[in-house]
Amino acid sequence: MRKLAPGLLAVSALVASVLASPAAQAAGPTAAQLLAKLTSCQQISNGKYRTDTETAATIPVCGKNGAVWYKADMDIDCDGQPTTKCNKNTDPWFQPDTAFHDSKGKPLVADKLPYVVVPSPSGTWDYRKHGIQGGGVVAVIYNNRVDYAVVGDTGPSNIIGEASYASAVTLGINPNPKNGGTDGPVHYLYFKNSKVSPIEDHGKAVSQGEALAQKFLNEN
């Protein structure tokens, strides 16, 4: 490991202290504040979802003022543009496409963009009828962390609880599509009628998400 000169050590220490200060931390509501509003479910789905093919259907989709949410697990989605981390060799279920595309018309990049997978429309629930769309903002809450992602892909119509490789990394979850993910609980909080443009701009997802999360707290 290369040693830093004394002057560089001082600069490094200063940067570390700044990053550790409260002012440098993400703005917006804390995980605890958001979870306090998600303690009871007003079910809006016509039925319930499975978290995996072999599990029972126990997960309802719930409604709140200006939002839709559910509590599930997290499976890892590596679909989209092939990369060294997400491809047919690293992911047995890999698909080189996503339901929603970036500003250049290309599939999203799962290991770079935090995105959430919403169940495909069905008689159980149709996200399109509840103010949810591609590029919509989602607060993903796990282990006292909040990550703001976008709606980036659709999945099976009977399974719920999936997010991109990058979303898992941000939340400290094993992102390996073969053996990663978590049983949770992971809370997915969708803000109605929101949209990030361009969809691949994660910075915008975070800034919009923080504002929408505060609005959610104020209205619920």
TrEMBL record:
Domain of life: Bacteria
Compartments, as annotated in UniProt: Secreted
Keywords: Carbohydrate metabolism, Glycosidase, Hydrolase, Polysaccharide degradation, Secreted, Signal
Signal sequence extent: 1-26
Keyword set includes Signal: yes
Descriptive protein name: Chitosanase of glycosyl hydrolase group 75
